[in-house]
User: What shape does this take?
Amino acid sequence: MGMTADDQCGSRGRVDAARMRHHVPTSAVLARLLAEAPADYVSLAWLVDRFQARSFGLVMLLLALVSLLPGVGIIAGILLAFPAVQMILGRESPSVPRFLASRRIPTRHIAGLVARAVPLLERMEAVIHPRLPTPSEATKRVTGVIVLLLAATFVLPVPFSQIIPALAIMLLSFAYLEEDGVLMGISLVAALVSLAVTAATVWATLSAAGLVEKLWTRT
Assistant: This one.
């Protein structure tokens, strides 16, 4: 005998409730990561290994945080391209080239970023939680495309140009980690706004340099 609509709704409700009970908040995962980190340096390979099933979201979140440090925006943008492309391809977890996987990051830098991020995440988690589930594979691929576009804007030779896209990537990563469809929708809008701001900045820069008029004249 088939399930009625009420039965299906009840079943979905039980699944969502079970998911919420077993869901470990991102702030707790980051706090545990900091407690387990080696004293001197951590590598990208070590981070990916510790994140396991949540590695895509956490790698992107940490790289977005790292990109806010002075002088590392372009490197972080390049590194972000790896998980983004692999999400588009539907991989289960990210993998990075050996020369990048072994690259060491001072633990004190990670510790400082995580120490500032965890209280903020804890406040956000009071209202953000698994809800409005979206198709996992489609969500992964869409997130990968948007993150790849945002990461590409990190290479612009404009001071502090990576701040807005980095914040958009942080929102996307958090929505992906917390399985929050509502926040995912908000994050996608923020990402589109960031891309629009970047496009306007590039256009204004080219216009100021007279390059737009030269290109228009040639065509």
Summary: The radius of gyration is 20 Å.
